[in-house]
Amino acid sequence: MKALIVYESQFGNTEKVARAIAEGVATSGRVEVVAVDTAPTVLPDDVDLLLVGGPTHVFSMSRVQTRADAAKDAPTPTRRGIREWLAQPPSSSGRLRVATFGTKQGHGRLSGSAATAAAKAARAHGLSVDAVEDFFVTGRSGPLEEGELERATAWGRALGR
């Protein structure tokens, strides 16, 4: 099995989650982790599992304006987000499993979710989404809540099976 993880991260928290997920997935196969700015538009034929993740901005995936606002305080702002990448989903041959993840503040449903929005966008393009998961940060710029990286690794292990 080969997995590709595409992530968007402003403050580094979503990247940390992506890499923790990769640790878990790697117990069952090969995995590549790439920032959305350099993500391929055509998936290699051997990719079986695609994971897409980003931070929750204003109840959903980031937009140009929300990224610009975050960039004022972010050490590593991205030029584009998963919203734009999923607008033109990468082509793939064969059966592709898809999972989405996100980082967000607050555990309530009213706080929105980039993971849920990404899953909806993927489904709109005919992709089948197998799993959606949120990971939690303590504030706008983080850090991640205690135990979230371990939870991300465990989630990755489960997806890799």
TrEMBL record:
SUPFAM superfamilies: Flavoproteins (SSF52218). InterPro entries: Flavodoxin/NO_synth, Flavodoxin_CS, Flavoprotein-like_sf. PROSITE patterns: FLAVODOXIN, FLAVODOXIN_LIKE. It comes from the Bacteria. GO terms for molecular function: electron transfer activity; FMN binding. This is Uncharacterized protein.
